Amino acid sequence: MQDPRLNKLADVLVHYSAKVQKGDIVGISADPAAEPLTQAVMRSVIQAGGLPFVTPRWAYYKEAMLEHASEDLLGMLHPLLKAYIDTVNVHFSLWAEDNTRSLSRYDTKRQSRLAQAYKPFLSTFMERAALPWEHPKRLRWIGTQFPTNASAQDAEMSLRQYEDFVYKAGLLHLEKPAKAWQEIHARQEKIRDYLQQKKIFHFKAPACEDHDGTDLRVDCSKSTWINCAGQENFPDGEVFAGPGAVDGHVNYTFPAVYNGMEVNSVRLRFKDGRVIDASASKNEDYLVKMLDQDAGARNLGEIAIGTNYSITDFSRNTLFDEKIGGTFHAAVGAGYPESGSSNQSALHWDMVCDLRPRKGKDGSAIPGGTISADGEVFHRDGQFVVV
User: Which pTM was predicted?
Assistant: First the structure.
């Protein structure tokens, strides 16, 4: 029996998030395990008058390329993918990995080479997504997670627990989730308005038993803050900007996960917006190689504050972890043009720092952190205290 929440999710994605209209060319890129959701989204798109086109995202494709492709072939973007991203009006990504660690043992340099091949795709994606909603070439996109055992294992939950976690994060337990997201958008707009009037942001978190805390200054004087309330990522819940100069250091309290590789205790030191020193207690070599893959990978492309207080637990899935209410995250690599960032890279790696009071590994109490804007503390211990 199909979970009734899937039809509710599909309707929210199609009608609220992507606003599919009659005549829209709609691409649906989906892992095979997401078939129940793929069917529901396709059905809803057709009912809205859109023309769906489904492209299965086979995990084995990347594995085969990494294992067998020549260097020249590895660095090529498939021409049909270029035509796809130039053509579709709406792009859905439905993630449902059977194995979230499938690429972990492949050579990092070849993974970087493969990522570079997708750089033109990512650039076009971001350029079209940055256009105004009314622009005829605007790309409306939405990405969401279909629950699988692999993702449930990463989150240290049963599949049933993980399903509840996923759907609650999207407010699908409510009778009218789209209305709830509209209300969230209105609340976050007040936060966005406040942030847009500020210039210099200071992120601070105390030292604990295994790191020296976070002390990061970010210039957003030329940035545009974006209100994220379920119209691109789903679930959602953040406000973000494309930063200018960044100085100081950040110790990320949660593991940083990218392409299934888990990097622990990441510490980045920035000067003039660029990472000048990077370390980690696990998989440090992978971290450094990802940062060295192209000229833009060491630049900070995004700074953001998580606002979804329905998500409280770390799950090793960035879609959820970067939204945790009471955290902030920053992405090295490509930035979103609509946020004021011009940084280009094949990398976009979000890393999350907790600002909530918590207990250390030894059971000791660790106080929360603060975010200030132009000297005024507006966020303390994971809560907004001014807005």
Answer: 0.91
